[in-house]
Amino acid sequence: MGQTGWVDAITTVRIDGCSTMFADSLHNFVPLAVVLAPSIAWGQMIDVGDVLSGRGIAPIKPPSAAPDFSLPDLEGAQHDLSDTQGRWVLLTFFATWCGPCKEEMPSLQGLAAHQTELDVIAVSIDQQVSALRRFVKSNRISLLVLHDATGQVGNQYRASAVPVSYIIDPTGRIVGVARGARDWAQLEPMFDELLGLVPSDPAAAPAYVATDSPVDLPTEFTPPTAIVTLVTPSLTKTTVDIGQPFALDVQVHWAGNFDDYLLHPPVVHLPEGVVQSGTSAETNSRDGRSTVTYHLALEAIEAGTFDLDPVELRYTPRFEEEPLTTQIKGPEVVVEAKASWLLPLVVAGSALGTSGLMAVGLGAFYWHRRQKPAVTVDDTYERLNSLFEEARQLRIAGDAAGFMERVATL
To answer: Under 8 Å CB-to-CB from 255, ≥6 apart: which residues?
Structure first.
């Protein structure tokens, strides 16, 4: 190719306002080989960034090499990300418990079916494969679904909150990230533009990297993390009494400014024996890290051992509409029944059989009558008699645990 051909090649590339005249004069002063390669790469990246940002996808500048990984599908077959070398990839991280993830699945399905030059890969961060199988079957998902049971790949791609999607170019570089659910059907023209700018190329030089380190992204793309702490009156114990207030502290922190995210109050999926009575929050910023601590006031209404999880955290990134969701494992709390003043008497009375139980019941009735002024209507005797009868029947049936539980309510 002659010198005129080189100049023509340069002028076909958009160089952020550079004119043909500028390109013509450029080769007179600088070796064309030096000008051409960086100019083409720079021009293409500007075009890709414009296409992404115009569709609400955050461009990554400069692009970041995508960490390679190998994960199984639901049939056990292993798939490497680098198998997609030379093709555009939409890599989505999701979870079966994530409502927004479920909402965007149909449009992901349609995108995978219509864009044959695009590889759509969905990676589940669920721990249990059984839940994933049910999700895939009930939602009739046919696109490639991989299972990240250990969470290692999700950690590498900073997918602690889902859904989050990465757009990877044919050389294996992350050029854009979409946080939150999308209607991917409306974004099909965007992929047409991307394929027009940078077509699939099996011979493209690979940029995938083999590393265990997290993907290199700007600070504003790093999602918040949280620490959940059980706060009891004793501070050092995880045991409380029925009716005794305790709390969960959910400390959410991230690098950057408070304005980067709109946080939603965390939601704890509480067992039936525990209720929430209020929520408060405080904020602070120190050493370049922003922190919001939510104080969830709780109270136990039943005895038992309860898992206070999962703790669900939602937040909306700045300039985006859809929230992201993350789940954090909560602590365990042991709730004990308060000791009843009648318990020793009832246990002793039970040793004497039915007559002993009735004697204790009558004694309790007359003791209450002497301690409290008379009222017009008093059903104490009937109520206590009913409770003791239930306890007696449980004892006769050999239900020791039920007997003691009934006695504890007296």
So the answer is: 219, 222, 288, 289, 290
